[in-house]
Design brief:
1 helix, 11 strands, 3-stranded antiparallel sheet, mainly beta, Immunoglobulin-like, 2 domains
């Protein structure tokens, strides 16, 4: 990852209705440029890091404990704009905000696809028979590993992989079958790892 994104957190403190930006580990050039309140809503604005940057706003009510959570109010984090308004009522005496700058991601962009295995019709029949499955395969299959771009919990660029299995001959149209694994604790537990 680009070292420019190593320390990219901004902090704004709202205390009893007064917004005050405070810099904590700010990266050069990344600054909260404006805070304002109108009608009970807080607006934050920050400097622009360019077209390859996206931003996620997080908040919590205390600094000493708790998780930073993405704030509601955007269809999906990260956003490409450099401002955001929190329309939530101020139900706490204070609320802390931070802005994370992350590399912009192009979700679903295929980064690589490679053939990882070929299973002939006879090999599939042998494998199915060894598991006591009484089904005769009609085709062999080609197995591909596909690596694609997605986002991490902060909206930054991340990679994921999946397996695509296709018949080795296309004499007929086949229905799409999809099997997907859930979130796993260990990367090696994923069938596509």
């Amino acid at each position: 990852m680009n070292k420019r994104f190593a320390a990219t957190t901004l902090l704004a403190v709202v205390w009893s209705g007064v917004a005050d930006p405070v810099a904590l580990g700010q990266a050069p050039g990344l600054r909260i440029t404006n805070t304002s309140q109108a009608g009970g809503a807080l607006s934050l604005a920050w400097s622009d890091w360019g077209p390859d940057t996206a931003y996620t706003v997080q908040s919590r009510d205390r600094l000493d404990a708790g998780l930073w959570l993405n704030v509601p109010g955007a269809p999906a984090w990260a956003i490409q704009t450099t401002s955001w308004t929190d329309a939530r009522p101020a139900n706490a005496a204070q609320r802390f905000y931070r802005v994370l700058a992350v590399p912009r991601a192009e979700r679903g962009k295929v980064l690589s696809a490679s053939l990882t295995a070929t299973y002939t019709k006879s090999l599939l029949a042998l494998l199915l028979a060894s598991m006591n499955v009484s089904m005769a395969p009609q085709n062999g299959v080609l197995q591909y590993k596909v690596v694609y771009e997605t986002i991490d919990p902060w909206g930054g660029r991340s990679q994921a992989s999946g397996r695509l299995v296709l018949p080795d001959t296309l004499v007929a149209v086949f229905p799409l079958v999809s099997y997907q694994h859930c979130t796993l604790l260990r990367k090696t537990d994923a069938p596509s790892a």
